[in-house]
Fold Nucleoporin_C domain-containing protein.
Amino acid sequence: LFNGLLEEEEDIIGNDDEMLDYKVECIEYVGTALIIGKEAIDQRRDDAVLDIGNDLRWTQEKHILKPFIKHLNMLFNCINQAGHECSKYVALLKQGVVIAAFIMNEQAFDDRQNSPIVAKFLEISEHTIAIELAKRFQDYKTLIRLACALPDIERKAKIEEYKEFFSSGDFCNMLYEYYLENGYMRDLLEVKEPEANLFFATQTNVGWMRDLENGDFAKACHTLKTLSRKSNDDVILKRRLLSFAKLSALCEDEVDENFLEGVKRDLNLIKLQQKLDPNLEMKFDSPDPVSKIRSCTAEEIIRANLSDTSCNIDRCFE
């Protein structure tokens, strides 16, 4: 029934010869039919004797939701064409909210993140409705993105409001991921919740920053050394990691001399590679992104020097 309605609706909406008023009337009619169907489903569920618990409901299957989503897209397109001044705008908007809520209620948690449905309400400047839907159905990613578009003080206040409202580890993890991916490293390091420690524990590439922030220099320097070993494809990154490892090791109350010597040896090897490639130093200091340069092994550096007839081998031991 729903698919048949949608096919007829698509034909009318896609017909350039039809008047806009008739298209609006068609959208309203089909929307009413879908809502009646939705209410019938709700009523049957209210009357149900058996509780299915966490089992998948038939309405959660994507092919069942497809007609509702398709209609909602046509509804928003129609609103965009007719404008806010359309006499049916409020009626269509109310239908849109009911259908949107039904769809999002049936969707899985991951499918609700960065919801295109919420985005549609934002596109027609219905920000209050969009945010209420996002809050009700836990579209954390949209809420975080919108909050982070606010001025700094407002952003922090809004984030704290959401943390208190949701009281959810999932929200915190998505917030930390957003901070990490969008350059809010300072904010991320300032977070003191236990969830942040768990997050950093899974983020090896930046976890050492948290260790430095907490004064755990021993842990930070060993993490940095490990990361440097995994960065042989990028000598610039490798040198940077080793330099931080050296500084972290020197910050310890009791300096581990053996560890420090190992870091210095690795840095000296990179210095020898610089002598083979005079342009490498400029790339180290360049503020612009540069293509990766592989880190050479000691054997490769020795072979390169031995094969260079103009090379003064003594310079490698300066």
